[in-house]
Every structure is written in structure tokens, then in C-alpha cells.
Amino acid sequence: MRGLIVLFGLMGCSGTTVYLADRCDLNFARPVPSEGAPGSTIVLEGGPATRSWDTIVTLNGTPAESVSVERENCGECETCRNSEGCNSCDDCDACDLLCTQTCEEVLSFVVPTVEAGTVDLIITNSHGSSSKIPFEVLADSSPGDTGPDSGAP
Question: For labelling, which of 18, 36, 39, 81 has a CA lying 20 to 30 Å from the CA of 4?
Fold first, then answer.
């Protein structure tokens, strides 16, 4: 009996905590438009998307502004995935067609002030991260610039 207590004690105190979560690659289409100056609003479709509060968009490591996530007509897809035992990251043959035809996941953000040129756009949420998406940041054209001086007083 004493041996069982020691064995149980060793099993229960491993000191290792394991957290299980759905982790997957996020797949978003090329941004529309595929270029923009700081302050421009950019839209991407794809997923799996979550909510605005847990979604971060970065351009060369600089967080984007005003990130918004819209998920429309996804209830029937989510019900199917739940009934089939599929999570958001799984391929779910029984629901794939339904989800593709009905669920629309759209992410938008405002381009932050970063140096002009091609940058790496990365989207991260509680499911995981996207691959680097090339995005062209245009030179900032400040609204205070009225063009060349005409020489008039």
C-alpha cells in the first residue's frame, strides 16, 4: 500500500503544465489594395478569424491601427463543425463546402506610419499566425502639403 502512495505522489507532481489550444496557420488572401500609404484602410479575406480584440496586424513589426474583424454568415458553418467534432484549425470534409459558400471572414486595418517600401505583413490571433504577406507601403503624403510654392504673397 505504501508503494502505491509514493507512485501516486510522483505522478501528480511532475511540475509540467500542458495547455491545449487550437494552433494553425492563418490563411489570408493578398490585401486589397495591395499597397497603401500610412492612414489607408486595407482589407483582407481569409481565416480562421476570431475577434478584433485578439487580432494583431503588424507591418515589419509595427502594429497596425484600427484592426477590425467581421465574420458574417458563419453560424451554420460553426454548428456543422461542432457537430462533426472539428475545430477551427481542422480540415472538416463534412463542412468545408458549406463553410466556403456561406462564411465570410474579413479583416481590415489602417496602415501605420512605417518606412515606405515592401514590408512583411503578419496577422496573429488566438489560432496562430499567418505567413509573411508582402505589402507595399507608399510614401506618406501629408494633407498639409499643398504642392510647390507658386511665389504669390
Answer: 18
